[in-house]
Amino acid sequence: MRIFALLASTVLALASLTAASQTSATAKTPVKAVPAPRQMVAQTPPMGWNSWNFFAEKVDDKDIRDAADQLVATGMKDAGYVYVNIDDTWEGQRDANGVLHSNEKFPDMKALADYVHSKGLKIGIYSSPGPKTCAGYEGSLDHEALDAQLYAQWGIDYLKYDLCSFIPAVMEKQAPDDKAEQMRLMVAAYAKMDKALKASGRPIVFSLCQYGWDAVWEWAPSVGGNLWRTTGDISPNWDRIYAIASQQAGLEKYASPGHWNDPDMLEVGNGKLTLAENRSHFSLWAMFAAPLLAGNDLPNMKPEIKAILTNRDVIAIDQDRLGKQGTRVYSEGEVDVWKRPLAGGAVAIAVINAGDSRYATHPFHLSLNQLGLHGPQTGKDLWTGKPIKLSDGQPLELARHDVLLVRIDAPK
Ligand code: GLA
């Protein structure tokens, strides 16, 4: 499977090199951005856990049950994390009737779904519109209706639908050298699964994963997408997280209740991220109204990671009922300043030091004027939990890759 995964990622990497050139070719493609009616799911960004970032191809039934148990035991469920999402590598073979079976790692998917539901949680699954998934397992091509019915029978609540082999097997095969037609085929494939999910009669969150190609944010709602990946894959290192964060600027107008930009699943607690980096990553995702899908090893979660993932104030920013994504208001050197409007006239401000040293940008002076705020402001520092006063031009000292995240309930 590793070889499959490598091949798949090579294809994706090559294809992403041409993504920029696709933009102009596909800009004229008449895809109407009319949101399709969908069951009331994902009215706030979905929260939960997904197996890929930590377990990747090694995940099995026990890991999923453990994750469900831990969501409850750690208080994450109470903080809002409800989806337990199985990513790639659960798929087995199709039988003579075309019905897909899970593989030996997942002996009884219905029983697993029942278990997850018995904890008051929801369960998600993964597939591809292509013949194979990214890791080389069975995809849904030509079996969309059957698969959607199967998910509904199992009690699945969420589907991540990952483009992968659809690119070489369908787009490039059927429309070589015609990027506009390739895009049309891709959009049609997502629309087909949306129709199948709706026909299944079960409310299922529909998560598009095609790495942000062809301005997916413009057309995803028209194919029933509740969330759509805006970039390639995340990895647990600051440079990648910061690159993805920077690529969210300008996408805020596409987010609204039921329709979210997805900068990929969380790496909080993974790799060698420092606490500051974990805080900044989580803060930015909250500013983006991003889905909060933890991707760490829950049974071995350190208390300081749990404290970050369960910070209720930060989660409240993410889940704010207004559903407006934050904007990068300005950058100065290595410091970025983001602002997010919240329900009831409140605002959240995030100041990120992307620089490698505390002093590289020191002193950074916060411009309240540029943030549209007038005079001194009183708010809450969401990482210390203490009140904070901000004034125009105030010097801020931020450690390497750290964040100041402030909520102002009554901005002036
Ligand atoms: C792609 C996706 C990842 C993950 C893997 C699974 O790379 O972007 O999030 O789902 O496939 O193979």
Provide a quick synopsis of the model.
With 412 residues, the chain is an alpha/beta fold. It is 33% helix and 19% strand.
Structural overview:
By secondary structure, this protein is an alpha/beta fold. It has 14 helices and 18 strands. An eight-stranded parallel sheet has the order 9-8-7-6-5-2-1-10. Strands 11-12-13-18-15-16 form a six-stranded antiparallel sheet, with helices on one face. A two-stranded antiparallel sheet has the order 3-4. Strand 3 (91-94) and strand 4 (100-102) form a beta hairpin. The model is unreliable at 1-30 and 34-38 (pLDDT under 50).
Assembly form of the protein: single chain
3D shape? globular
Helix/strand/pairing category: alpha/beta
Task: Catalogue the unreliable spans.
Answer: 1-30, 34-38
**Attached small molecules:** alpha-D-galactopyranose
Can you list the strand order of the major beta sheet?
9-8-7-6-5-2-1-10
By DSSP, the count of extended strands is 18
The number of helices is: 14
Rg, alpha carbons: 21 Å
- Our estimate of the beta-strand percent is 15-25%
- Average pLDDT, rounded to a whole number, is 92
Described by strand count, sense and barrel closure, the largest sheet is: 8 strands, parallel
> What level of helicity do the residues show?
25-40%
Gap between N and C termini: 56 Å
